[in-house]
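Hi team,

Filling in the usual template for the complex we talked about on Friday. All components are listed, including any nucleic acid strands or ligand strings, so the model treats them as one assembly.

SUBMITTER: L.P.
PURPOSE: interface mapping
COMPONENTS: two
RESIDUES: 864
SEQUENCES:
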Amino acid sequence: MNFRSFASLAAAFCATPREESSSARGWSSIPAWQDYHVAGTHVTCAPTNTNHARKVRRLTHLPLVILLIAAFCAAPRAAAQAPQSLGLDPAVLLNPPTDTWPTYNGDYTGRRYSTLDQINQKNIASLTLAWAFSTRGLNLKSTPLEVSGILYFSSPDHVWAVDARLGREIWHYETKTEGGKIGHRGVAMWKDYLYFETGDAHLVSLNAKDGKERWTIELADAKLGYFATMAPLVIRDHVLAGVSGDSTDIRGLLRSIDPETGAIQWTWYVDPDPGAPGSETWPKDPEAMLHGGGMTWMTGTYDPALNLVYWGTGNPNPVMVGDLRPGDNLYTCSIVALNPDTGKLVWYFQPSPHDVHDWDAVQTPILIDGEFRGKPRKLLAQASRNGFFVVLDRITGEHLLTSPFIETTWSKGIDERGRPIADPQANPTPAGSLAAPGSDGATNWMSPSFSLQTNLFYVNAHRLFSIYYRTVDGKVEGWGGRDQNLWGNSTLRALDYKTGKVVWNHEIGEGEAFTGMMTTAGHLLFGGDTTGNLLALDPATGKTLWHLNLGGNITSSPMTYQLDGRQYVVVAVHDHFYAFSLPPTAIKSGK
Amino acid sequence: MAKSKWLWLTTIVVLVLSSFAHAVRAQDDDDDPDRQPVVKAADQGPDAARGQKIFQQNCGVCHANDATGGRGPDLVRSPVVAHDVKGDLIGDVIRKGRPDKGMPPMSLTASEIADVSAFLHARVKEGLQSARVPKVYDLQRLLIGNADAGKAYFEGAGGCTSCHSVTGDLAGVAKKYTPIDLQARILYPEKLFKNTKTDATVALPSGEQVHGHVIHQDEFAVGLIDSTGWYRSFDRARIKVEFNNRLAAHRDQLFKLSQDQVHDLFAYIQTLK
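RESULT (copied from the run log):
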């Protein structure tokens, strides 16, 4: 290191703000304003105070100078280089630290279980509002990402970056499309870039610093009826992006996109090619199959050790009428395991064969490592929209358990492969068929959770009765009918994954609750009810520990992070995000 | 004011208020786009109506009269139709045919092509609209049950007569709703996901009892309109409350009714005109 470097280093040190150091950036702790004596050069930093009483150290203090020189040499070169990026290294997704929520479900397991325990059962009574953020009328169903102190979240055709500590907007991106606006789950991040799916089924890459578009590619033809609502999933150098739709009869798919260039790396079609495995579950004439639906609505989960990505697929088309698609209709309403590098199908399980009720099987397939019948196993569990809880071996797809998690009336039992057997009496008919659940499902897109403290699986479950009508005769295009909701109520349930038994049940009122759930190591479960309350429950018993009327029902799945020793829990109510934490005075410093 | 003037005033006020109430109820459903009937292609406009005839004459033999395909592909699902704007792409295919697929070229005029295109776009729209339960629905499609069996159930196993009377509260009920809405209301007679039919009796620590109509209920509190018409709320940790949900019997039946019972009940109740 030469003299010039020393001088510029010293100047840089003096110029750097003296707030708390960020170990994430590799800066070592910097002392307050000082004079530095460097190898014969006297460098004085402009003091922030008027204390001129400090003596300038002279060459006589050589040992100290040598020490300082050695320290400067050893110090990271960061001061002379550009500061490190606040972007996301994809490796962080493998084991996110508590100051980061880098993907839709928080991590690859889908458990939505946080190891944060600053907020816990002992202090939950003093939980307070840290900040609120308003989109001024745009509904929020999105789980924000939090990376390097910035939240990134979305609404159909909108993306925001917001300061995670202060709740203040950094930038706001908007595009205008004609496509589906039923909701939007969020964005994905890779290095300095964000990935966002649009109403016209495009994938847009934004620069995370300023929200500017880098490129946009077509995931599917919006004119055919595709749109997109999901938060993509980043695995190494793949951005996995799925599609939505089902008002027209189109082929479901999942694509892997190059995060730098937007090039399509592979595509997996939910409806097989003619003659390919699975095609035997459709009529011989491939027309039905190639218009067979199976949208990939929600973000999947991933096991890095097995290198398998798990994804749920949606219902077949035409939605309410299955006459012209006899057969199980693979791989619609299925949980599939794919190789993320090639997009090849490794195994599948189908919770709703030959569905005619719109019961997508896209609910988060949570990864559980635990005992099953006395042996440690790698498991996958889904509380499916059709009202059944399914547990599989996630290495092989072997079926282990199927059990109802809420009252339904559509099924006559479970077959030898673990699939619920549909009672044809519950199928849509011209005169109407009464069945539970309705098309909205016994659960839907709201997040389930699995706690590593209780080993319980949590689901927001609905009892929902509808009358299903087939309104179209002849060849059906699109839905061919619809159900009319009659009555419903909601409950938060804890399931034992080993048996499917309901361990506890916490009723949350009339109507359909769309709150997601999240558990933390503070022995807390966050959720909501149907009358606008945010709830903190004891995850072991379901007992209510704290609540607050937020003025509207929770519309998102909760997330949490800790920055500067302060834990935040964030939920959305319609067009507002609310961040909760303990009062600052109650938080110990340096935690 | 003279007695007759009071009478006039009262009558006018009552008429105005009741018409207002009717208007409010109508707004709830009549304007709801999701309850509108599917408009058949030929009814979507004169061009689509003409187009249907031209299509049937020229194209139906291969594509079926409703364009859902036969020897030729299903055009309702066609990407060409999906991308077409006022016949630009469809016209191309009609004029040139698809020789490699066995479709001959057709010499339709520009106006005929425009009409055929309008018909095809209208068919696509029909498909999109099919995701509805329309408010108006052919009664004959619903009438598959046995009214006598419905009456027997109503008076017997259903237990309906413990709350209802066909000559009392249910007299003329079938005139008040469209058949499809009547069927829904027989099963559960309430606005979706609201419950306006629950009363409560609250016992305060003092021994005072408050009785009222519930307008808010969660695990923490009850809010009700008491017998004087004023709103009062209570912390459930401090009081005892008993609820009387007058819709409970309807809700409970949903878990037990067979499809036959549903249709038999409808067949019976829809006679109450």
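MY TAKE: The first helix of chain B runs from residue 3 to 30. The beta strands of chain B are 198-203, 209-217, 221-226, 231-235, 240-245.

Thanks, L.
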